[in-house]
Amino acid sequence: MRSSIQSSLLLVASLSASMVEAERVLGAYIFARHGDRTAKIFGNTQLTDLGYNEVFDAGSFYNERYILSSSDKHIEGISSLIVNAQQISASAPADAVLQNSATGFLQGTLANSTTVVSPLRGYQLIQVTSTSSDADSEDATWLQGSSDCQKATVSSNNYYISDSYNSMLKSTKDFYESLSPMLNSTFTSSEMSFKNAYTIFDYLNVGQIHNSTTDSPALKDLTDDVYAQLIQLASNQQFNLAYNETDTVRAIDGAVLAGQILSGLNETIATDGKKSKLGVQFGSYGTFMSFFGLVQLPAASVDFTGIADYASSMVLELVTNATGTGFPSEDDISVRFMFHNGTITGSAEPTVFPLFGQSNDLLPWSDFKSGIEKIAVTSDDDWCNMCGNTDGKCASSTASTNADSSSSSGSNSSGMSHAVAGVIGAMVTLAVILGLEALFFLVGGFRIAKRSKAVSEMAVAAAAAEEKKS
């Protein structure tokens, strides 16, 4: 009898412990690279059928992990069958490769042809928000080179005059010249150097994927050793162009991504999980590298200095061990980072890595938030200040700053409001214009036509504009 009671108590204790330790997933943010595409050097880069299938497979994995109600990693409250636009947000640069990759990935998250009987095997439309194509265009041979961020471009270009770059340029000269039989149909002899490390790797990588040695006899020289050296050199070059520990503006794309991740996860928490349960964003390998550098992932593995393969993905999960069904307090929420290089197939899963040089795989939300805020760009003003830009979207920011500066001194010195000052200024301007106009007509012998009404309207418009500024 006593033995039976003890067994029952142990069972109850065991069940209680498992309930306490049962992890709940509250939300997630996924950043992924596009699938296989055509070579950049030819321009008009396009996603291939293989690439579409790669991102579809990756999306299918995340569907099974986060969307299916039977998954132990199912995001609490997320709709399993019908898309709820408030729960999922998706974005990609206005670029054919990245936009199409996002579409393929999202359909993977919805795929379940065994139970869905609607047209097109359950195809559902999810809006993919378009972002600027400048920093992430797949037609650019070096993504940062087409970025609008002035200081980031200068920083990246500084790499080309560094000792480390020049050392690599000299030490790899013979290697790149030996690739001439595979490159001479596309590259000039002067282009066969470390300066074009990524473009050369990309060209040969695409060739290896889509052509056999029978189709392209020159590829017989692309041995495993040569390929390994090509990707190692390209990774070395690109990581140095994407991130610099002492000049972090170089990693502007990673900083912007950090801000978007923070915003997405923040919204999940701020709305108690009612909105923004799953964020999906597509971007370039360069953005991966910038972000990896900023969150100190190379400290966890040197592999994070390498170029992420097609359809690679990283994800940040919001999790809790708090019991019950209600949304937990921030103190009970943690963040887990995971990454998978290449598309996810079969039984493969993303690997967990610690962020910010720490040893723990799970970071309390407060620690994650404080760490990410140090590196994140969260607004246009932040971006403009960091990049040193004063044109485009930064022009209004600069004008606003100057206006705020002048308003404080102008208002304090005279006590006059901007609206009154604007009207007086407009009238003074009107008087000057009329005086000059009269002088011009008198000296030139011209007659005055009916212009006074138009000028008066200009003065009123100017005064109104000044009043709006105040």
From TrEMBL:
Residues 1-22 form the signal peptide. The chain crosses the membrane at residues 419-443. Keywords: Membrane, Signal, Transmembrane, Transmembrane helix. One of its GO terms (molecular function) is phosphatase activity. InterPro entries: His_Pase_clade-2 (IPR000560), His_PPase_superfam (IPR029033), Histidine_acid_phosphatase (IPR050645). The keyword Signal applies. It comes from the Eukaryota. Belongs to the histidine acid phosphatase family. This is Uncharacterized protein.
